Here is the input.
Amino acid sequence: MKFFVDTADLDEIREAASWGALSGVTTNPSLYAKTGGKLADFEPHMVEICRICEGLPVSAESTAETTDDMIAEGRRLASLAPNIVVKLPVCTEALAATHQLASEGVRVNMTLVFSAPQALLAARAGARYISPFVGRFDDIGDDGLAQLQTIVAAVKNYTYGYWDEEGGPEIITASVRTPNHVTQAALMGADIATVPFGALKKCVRHPLTDQGLASFAADWAKVTG
Here is the structure.
């Protein structure tokens, strides 16, 4: 499984990249707003993320609402850096925009996916990445992992043509809240987990590891006096 970090915070991205396990970054308007950034600084901010993560896919989300505007904004975003992926929410306008952008070689990450039919349509339209949400299902008392398993099984049944040589479309497990979300997504064959930085740090930690480290330190203190 590949790990993406779901943030627009430059310090978080730098630290995650320093671990050597980062395979990409996903952002959205809400995550950018949390940084305190202004509209005029958005594109330079995305360029800086791409510089930090050179060669790794960085999703920048379009805020356009019509097909023509999504295409125009997608082209502009893709021109910022070679590793930019245009992020579009699944809807009829975005499917049409994805079809056009994919035909031009622009990679699209289709987001806010909550069903297998949505995921299959995104794949058929030419999305390079498909982002089903897990945690938001859990928020309403549904089983987000069961929904993800259905989507993974359905999409993996077929080939789609656009990104076969790159191994796509790849499924990004999104709205990840816990290490167990990551574990279960990996077991069912999801390609990627995009994880908030706080949750990513939780994936590194385990109470038995902490106990073991404390024990090692206490024993070594006895040796060193």
Summary: The chain has a mean pLDDT of 96. The first strand starts at residue 2 and ends at 6.
